[in-house]
Amino acid sequence: MIITLNKNIICIGQFKLKCSVGKGGIKKEKISEPLLSKRRKKIISDPFNDDNPITIQVLGICSALAVTIKMEPTIIMAISVVFVMIFSSLITSVIRNYIPTRVRIIVQMAIIASLVTLVSEFLRAFNYEMFKTLGAFVGLIITNCIVMGRLEAYAMGNKPYDSVLDAFGNAIGYGWIIITVAFFRELLGSGSVLGFKVFEFIGWENFPTNGLMVDSVGAFIIIGLIIWIQRSISGYVEN
């Protein structure tokens, strides 16, 4: 679609061209897109709600059930996924034109595995207790369908900066869901948040905690409620 904004600027799709007439004829200069244009803001914001990887795309459910018993390991897991997604998308996008189509999945997994190894070794060196708590779950980021999906669907076909924005948006969209699940599971299952005894602090020492919340069934219930509330507000319906 071609739209004339004024006599000197023409918009073709998402690109703007500045035209000027000189001695050599018409000169065309591409106007660079702002770093946080409306389109790029949408890339970041869509995964928060309208295209959330857990509640809309129903991806990454396994880790949402496994690591959300307590807030602290959940936050570490969310930060790890943000790191892995951003840098794997960046690296994949930078080298996308040099990756043979037949081995692209292997290359993507090698990139993810290298970054996950960095995260794992960092935790082992600086927070060994958390390394033992998360255990194999950090390693399973390698097979997290959200990470692989964004590399294949977006980073392989877009420029590095846009790919980083897409990875950041999806990682935060994933992160806020699992942190919300962990908040309610720890609060209702253990009566605490980040180890702080909430009900004792407000004078409800005998508040009955719910043992169901420390089981994966509790995570299913909370995720189901979040999906129901979100889709009721947005009006999203499965096709």
Please provide a written account of the structure.
It is built from ten helices and six strands, in the order ββββααααααααββαα. The chain is globular, with a radius of gyration of 22 Å. It is 56% helix and 11% strand. It has helices spanning 38-45, 61-66, 71-94, 104-126, 128-134, 136-139, 145-153, 160-190, 198-201, 216-234; strands at 2-4, 9-12, 15-22, 25-31, 192-193, 196-197. A four-stranded antiparallel beta sheet has the order 1-2-3-4, with no helix packed on it. Strands 5-6 form a two-stranded antiparallel ribbon. The longest helix is centred in the last third of the chain and has 31 residues, at 160-190. Helix 3 packs across helix 4, helix 4 crosses helix 5 (128-134) and helix 7 packs antiparallel against helix 8. It has two domains: 2-31, no CATH class; 38-234, no CATH class.
Our estimate of the beta-strand percent is: 5-15%
Query: How much is the radius of gyration in Å?
Result: 22 Å
Sheet with the most strands, sense and barrel status? 4 strands, antiparallel
Helix proportion range: 55-70%
Shape: globular
Catalogue the unreliable spans. 1-5
User: How many H/I helical runs?
Assistant: 10
Number of domains: 2
- Average pLDDT across residues? 82
Spatial ordering of strands, largest sheet: 1-2-3-4
- DSSP strand count: 6
Task: Kindly name the structural category.
Answer: alpha+beta
**What is the N-to-C succession of helices and strands?**
EEEEHHHHHHHHEEHH
Distance between the termini: 29 Å
Compact summary:
By secondary structure, the protein is α+β, with helices and mostly antiparallel strands.
